[in-house]
Structure formats: structure tokens, C-alpha cells
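To: structure desk
From: M.T.
Subject: fold request, one chain
Message: Could you run this one when you get a chance? Sequence is below, nothing fancy, just the single chain.
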Amino acid sequence: MAGSSGIDRASSDPSLPRDTQQEKQAVVHTFKPGDVSINISYDEASDRSDPDLSDDNELPDPNDETWNPEMSLEHIHDTQVRKLAIITGEEEVLDIIEEDEGVTSAFTTDTAFTRITNAEEMKGEHAFTGYECCLADLVQMLLPACTQCKKSYEVDFEKSGTGVYMKWTCQAGHITGKWCSQPKLNRGMLAGDFLWSTSLLYSGNSYRKVRLMAEFMNAGYVSERTHYSIQRDYAIPSVEDFFIKMQDDILNTLHNKEVIVSGDGRMDSPGHSAQYCTYIIMDYETEDILTAIIIDKRETDLKSVNMEKAGLIKALAFLKQRGVKVKEIITDAHVAIAAFLRKNEKEIKHSWDIWHGAKNIGKKVIAAGQTAACKELILWSKDIGNHFWDCAKTCSNDPRKFLAKWRGVVHHVQNEHEWLFGDGCGEAKCDHAPIPPEEARSKPWLQPRTKAYKAIKEIVLSNTRLINSIPHFVNYRYRQRAYKSLLMMLIYY
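Reply: Done. C-alpha cells follow.
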């Protein structure tokens, strides 16, 4: 072997024991073929059978069986090599095939496999469900006899996540080919594993449920560790980056502009045991989501009922910081939110969602109709709720007109469509066309002085909280769009 050799001796220290001196005094022969050097290190006389042999006279014989030098390889660019990233055993490595996936190292050769280097290459690719018996039949039909021994092939299958590796050998044991059912991405990850994991997250499904479904079908599936690694390293960062980019574009267009927004929060579980609340603020006119705030119960002294208010406060502070001027906000009839806006955000008009108001009216009517004497009220619940909607729609932002028309319901339910005195804010009659006496009725008219009629009067005329809340409904705001966005977000809990 061509190369250079040399002998280096370490200086002896008399104060050290002889064994230590012998260990430090080493002779190193270095051979450099190409860009790799082979370092052979050995101790002096201590490693040789003849104690009288001195390295001043001759070097040890490499053919001597008692000579056991230490050998190492060193690259000529060792400094650059040492700068490369080192993966330790504690780090997560994608596409690690676990024992339950049943894949051996013999099936991981990449030489004949389709590789994907650009995500655009996967666009338009269709995925299918295949069975082992059908793949075996296909191989037997297409493959010729072994080119070495002319014998037929035997096919072996090994599952790897959502894919399968196939190897065919002849009866004499000649390995002639390997194939994978999926393209491979960078770092050897199967494309199907990546797409299954990302699609599962984006569709809001549960990993364990989908994995259980795959087990029922006896189908392969990506391992849990690989799934969450893909989710953490690829899927979630992509969504966050895309959302932030879109959010910046929208907020830049709204800078120093007055906007009407709607807000609502959803808990991760019903009742008072929720841990997280997601609060969304949406532009009421364009339907663009301006911000989404996640509140942890630990931020509200472990009181889940306060999380929605905390989410609203954070969302409004964020919009102010970005230069968005909120002139009106639509929420549900949350008492704590109403109190906060009334005391701290007096310049913002606070409207309540009309759907919530009509729903609460209907619930009160149904509750009053649970007794035998008032059971006919249940048939009126939907109509009274619709009347509340109509009052908000036709009041022209005037609370007095709203109240005057709302009180007319106590006359209508007893088949009285014109009355003597009004509130001075509208005509003392119903807006609908005359009802023919012979028209078939789906619900009975209420008789005066009955318990059912008194219950309706109690709900319509004596509910102080409802009457005081009428100014919140006069703008006729409905948050259907915000509900759709929240429902979409709920699937990711």
C-alpha cells in the first residue's frame, strides 16, 4: 500500500509508574490511501512476547499473532465530517419501522424503488386498497423464470406501515427482485404513511379510531410514533405558517378601518369540566377569521366559566395591537362578557345574536307548557320565536318599535289582531293579512284568563331581563357564519 510512515514517541515522565509510561509511549504508523487514513496504535514492549525487545532496535512484526494493535479510520476532511448532524438514540427518527410493523432490514433497499423529491409529483396520484393474494397472482403472471436456474419464483410480503414490500426469489434461493407498493419520500418515508397521517389530522379524525378500523380490516397502518412525528414536524407547522400568512394579509387590509366582528367560544368538553376554550373573532361582513385564541383553564384560576370572557379580552387586545378598529361586536348573551364590554369598551356597540334570543324565548315557552293546563303552549313555541326574529328585523334599530311589536303577541295568540291602545311607536294591530275564520287551525287560540294565556303574558310582558336586553337585538345580527367556523374547529379537538 502506497503511503508514508513515521514513528512518534511520547516523552517519559519518571514520576509516573512504568505501566503508565508504557501506555503513553506509543508508536503510530499512518497509511493514507486516497482521502482516508488508517491509524494503527500499539504500546511498546508491554504488548510483545519478548520483554527484551526494544523499539530502538526494530519495529514489531505485523505477522506476529500476539500483536494486537488498535486500529481506527480517519477522513482527510475530518473537521467537516465532525460538523455533520448526529442523531442520538433519544431523538425521534421518522420512518423507524417498529417491531409490530414486521419489516426486516432485507426489505429496505432503495435501489429499485420509486422516489419522490417534489410534493407536486404526488398531485393527481390515486390510492387503492390491494390484497396480498391479488399481488401474488400478478407477480406469478408477469415474472418469467429465474435467469440463473430457470426455476419458478416464490413471493414474500412484509408490511411496512400502510405499504408492503415484496421480494421474489427462485426455488434455488436466488434473490432476483424487490418492490415497494408506495413511492418513497426523503429519508425513506413511505408516501402513504405521510399522506395518511396528514390527511387524518386535517380531516379531524382520531388516530386510535382509524388505527382500530385498519386492524379490523387486517390492513397495515402507520405506527403511532411515526404519525405524531409527522404531525409535529410537518403537518402542524404547515398549517400555522399558512394561517399566519393569511391572517397578516387580512389584517393589513383592515388597518385603521372600522369593522363589525362576531365572536364565539367553544369548550373542548361539555359542562364545567372543560380544560380549553377556543375563541374566534370573525369579520361579520367578509366572513374572514381575524384571530383564534386558545385559553387554558389554568389562566382563569381553574374556572372554566371564565375562559370565554378571557378569550374575548385577548382577541380584542390583539386586534387593537394590529390597528383594527372594532365598532360593533356580536356575541351570545354571556353575562360576564356583557358586563366587561359595558364597563371597559364603551365605544364598541354590543349586539347579541338574534338566534340565541329566539331560542331562549322558545325554551321558556316550552318550559311553561310542561303542565297539563298549559300544554297547548308547546305548539306556539316556534311561532313566538319567529315573531321575535321579525321584531328585530323590522324595528329599524329602534328599541321602542321592537318592544311595541313584541307585545302584540299577547293579542295575537287569543285571535285578537287589532287592539285599542298601542305604545305610540306603531300601529295597534298585527302586520299579517286577515285570517279567514274558516281556515283550518294547527293549534288552538288561547282563551283569556286561562293559565296558558297568563304564562304567555308573564314571558312577554313581565320578563324584565328580556325587556332590558332588547337594545342588544335591534341591529338584527346573526352569527351563522361564525358558527360554521366553530363547528369546523370542533372536529380538531
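Reply (cont.): The first helix runs from residue 18 to 24. Let me know if you need anything else for the meeting.
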